[in-house]
Amino acid sequence: MKTPKSLVCLALSLVAPWGQAIELIGQTVSLSSVNVVAEVNGVIETMDVEVGDKVQQYTVIAEIKKQDFQFELARTTANLELAQAELKLKRSVYERYQELIKNNNLSVNELDIAKADYLNAKALLKLAQIELDIAQKNFEETSIRADIEGFVVSRDTQVGAWVNQGDLLYRLVNIDTLTVRLLASEHDMSLLSVGQSIELWAETSPEQKVVASIARIGVEMDVQHMAYPIEVDIKNADFKLIPGMSMYATTDVSQITTSVK
């Protein structure tokens, strides 16, 4: 029968001499991952990176076919120019009517109509500008960029596929800094504290040890493992560690005393 991981964790901690050291096991995880999604509807035209590729932040990693968005951008640009010309005409009429009414050559009603036309043209110009801004934004979002520097861990669509706004395209993860999520028994919790020094090593490279400090201690039990999460952040500039790797850790508790009733 396979021994549950949480029981292995507890067994490891009890092997160490009481009051000397606690040994824990866990895994590396990345807290810096992002989902890259489509911001507009359309057909995927290019996808430039594959799983495992390293990407720089803001690099274009995929593109949605631009033709329809170019047409919309041209249409809204033309509408804005028409609205600008209309406003210029209505303003000129309104200003001329203001002069005419001073000489009693125009009725108040005619002036009111000219003013309403002028105000309407101003509002239409604002709407035209909003439509152009939306068209410009949509056009720019046909180029999908990496939100972070990191590695591609999944590619979720293909060239030629139709995607809707919000559909997942890629998942990226940054591993410059990784979090080691360890599991501690209830017994060990009284001997652990934030800031406490702890030594860690990967199961695959036991000779390469890293000294860090406990960053966070969970206050709620992980019911799946029946243990409490202990998190340690470590630098990973050489990318030797990747998310999901098994990790071991030990921390000296020889200076810590606890009272047992």
UniProtKB/TrEMBL annotation:
<feature type="domain" description="CzcB-like barrel-sandwich hybrid">
    <location>
        <begin position="34"/>
        <end position="172"/>
    </location>
</feature>
<dbReference type="InterPro" id="IPR058792">
    <property type="entry name" value="Beta-barrel_RND_2"/>
</dbReference>
<protein>
    <submittedName>
        <fullName>Efflux RND transporter periplasmic adaptor subunit</fullName>
    </submittedName>
</protein>
<comment type="similarity">
    <text>Belongs to the membrane fusion protein (MFP) (TC 8.A.1) family.</text>
</comment>
<feature type="domain" description="CusB-like beta-barrel">
    <location>
        <begin position="185"/>
        <end position="250"/>
    </location>
</feature>
<dbReference type="InterPro" id="IPR006143">
    <property type="entry name" value="RND_pump_MFP"/>
</dbReference>
<feature type="coiled-coil region">
    <location>
        <begin position="66"/>
        <end position="100"/>
    </location>
</feature>
<keyword id="KW-0732">Signal</keyword>
<feature type="signal peptide">
    <location>
        <begin position="1"/>
        <end position="21"/>
    </location>
</feature>
<dbReference type="Pfam" id="PF25954">
    <property type="entry name" value="Beta-barrel_RND_2"/>
</dbReference>
<keyword id="KW-0175">Coiled coil</keyword>
<dbReference type="Pfam" id="PF25973">
    <property type="entry name" value="BSH_CzcB"/>
</dbReference>
<dbReference type="InterPro" id="IPR058647">
    <property type="entry name" value="BSH_CzcB-like"/>
</dbReference>
